[in-house]
Design brief:
6-stranded mixed β-sheet, binds magnesium ion, 2 domains, 15 strands, Rossmann fold, alpha/beta, VC0802-like, binds adenosine-5'-triphosphate
Length: 407
């Protein structure tokens, strides 16, 4: 007959063979979505698979969560890092999976547990076949862990680590310590389409991130004033698109020539209205492309009062030339708050590269702070709006990170 120690060694070997590593993916707000929940989950599943392209793994959907299994162990950091940027994922855990059997769970729990310190066991039981109360299972597992490590002590409220045992409806249990917080939000592309006005600055990439987080599928448009702004300014915008790719996969960028518009404004209109009028053209042109692409809104990185072109009146005057709604997710944020998001998503270093964008090339000393619609319309009578707009649209190019198509 096996001694107690011998029996434990047999148990240890058995559960080590019968358990394996999985990544548990928890969904965020999707539970709010009632009947549409399954559709949201399928969009998220598609996005997860896209993010993990090139890795070997199995993907399983379950109630309110998903599991990644049978991945290469060396890939785990890379996989976690990619999942961390997929909107709709609330948190992740690296867990041990084992068939639900409390005796085996106890052995596994103590195997993977630190041998010293204070801890608690928390059991979440979704499986109706297990009749024992969660608290009693937790006490049972905790008791076993104590019996195998003299350096451990239970402390329910102030502990060094928490061992979670998730007993699921699929007949398996998942044992883990940490929850890794992820990007949250809603699955990318589950919330309509938007056309982002993307400059090379700090704000508009952050605006893209924030709307993508709410599920909006994003296409970008950049107004490019060659030769006033050079190749490096354009490269900056392309680099921003690439940097955002883990959050916003496959964002297409329309590059719209804009110097002819700015030159015409410069020649024919009062200098203090140069930015206001240029912005109205940006809105008009962006709306034409947006409608062609089936976008339901425009998105900008404006923040109220940040600069002259972002006062209440300026926003009103630029809005006046379009009928699509404009979403401005940064409207109430301070610059420092925007900067900290830009740093978090790692666009900041690209945005501060010192290459001027098209507005700085024609920047007036004193831009109008309180423009009016009437004045803007009056000055625009000197411009051939249709011709300027048509030229911009007919000469635009499209940049896509998967294939570079110029049409
Ligand atoms: P950003 O940091 O995004 O450039 P900003 O603080 O420099 O913003 P503005 O230059 O006034 O502010 O631009 C306000 C918004 O107008 C930008 O957030 C962007 O959405 C849009 N925009 C400005 N310039 C361009 C451009 N060249 N191409 C496309 N969109 C632009
Ligand atoms: Mg700017």
């Amino acid at each position: 007959m096996a001694t107690e120690k011998g029996q434990r060694e047999i148990d240890d070997q058995k559960v080590a063979l019968e358990s394996y590593d999985v990544i548990v993916i928890r969904y965020g707000e999707l539970f709010l979505k009632g009947a549409n929940k399954s559709w949201f989950e399928s969009v998220l599943a598609k996005n997860i698979k896209f993010a993990l392209k090139g890795h070997k793994y199995d993907f399983q959907r379950a109630r309110s969560r998903a599991y990644i299994e049978n991945f290469e162990n060396d890939d785990i950091d890379l996989i976690i890092n990619k999942l961390n940027k997929v909107f709709g994922i609330h948190s992740l855990s690296i867990a041990k999976k084992i068939k639900t059997d409390i005796a085996n769970i106890k052995v596994l729990a103590s195997q993977i547990s630190p041998k010293n310190g204070t801890f608690r066991v928390t059991v979440n039981r979704v499986d109706n076949n297990i009749k024992t109360r969660s608290m009693d299972i937790a006490a049972d597992i905790g008791g076993y862990m104590l019996s195998r490590a003299v350096g451990l002590k239970v402390n329910l409220f102030n502990h060094d680590f928490e061992l979670n045992v998730d007993i699921r409806e699929n007949g398996y249990s998942y044992i883990f310590y940490d929850k890794i917080n992820c990007a949250g939000g809603l699955p990318y592309s589950s919330g309509g389409k938007g056309m982002l006005l993307l400059s090379g600055g700090i704000d508009s990439p952050v605006a893209a991130y924030m709307m993508a987080k709410r599920g909006v599928k994003i296409t970008a448009v950049h107004f490019y004033s060659f030769p006033y702004t050079g190749e490096l300014a354009l490269q900056k915008v392309k680099d921003l698109i690439n940097k955002l790719n883990p959050y916003i996969p496959r964002m297409d960028l329309y590059i719209v020539p804009f110097s002819h518009v700015q030159e015409s404004i410069d020649k024919n209109c009062p200098v203090e209205y140069a930015i206001t009028l240029a912005r109205r053209f940006m809105m008009r042109i962006a709306q034409i492309i947006a409608k062609k692409r089936g976008c339901g809104c425009l998105i900008t990185g404006e923040s109220l009062g940040q600069v002259a072109s972002q006062t209440m009146e300026s926003i009103n005057v630029t809005n006046n030339v379009i009928d699509l709604p404009v979403l401005r997710p940064l409207i109430g944020l301070d610059k420092s708050e925007i900067v900290s998001i830009a740093q978090k998503i790692d666009t900041y270093e690209i945005s501060i590269r010192p290459f001027a964008d098209c507005c700085t090339a024609f920047l007036p000393d004193k831009p109008v702070i309180h423009p009016t619609i009437d004045k803007a319309i009056e000055y625009e009578t000197k411009l051939n709006i249709d011709e300027l707009t048509d030229k911009a649209i007919s000469e635009m190019e499209i940049y896509s990170i998967y294939k570079t198509i110029f049409n």
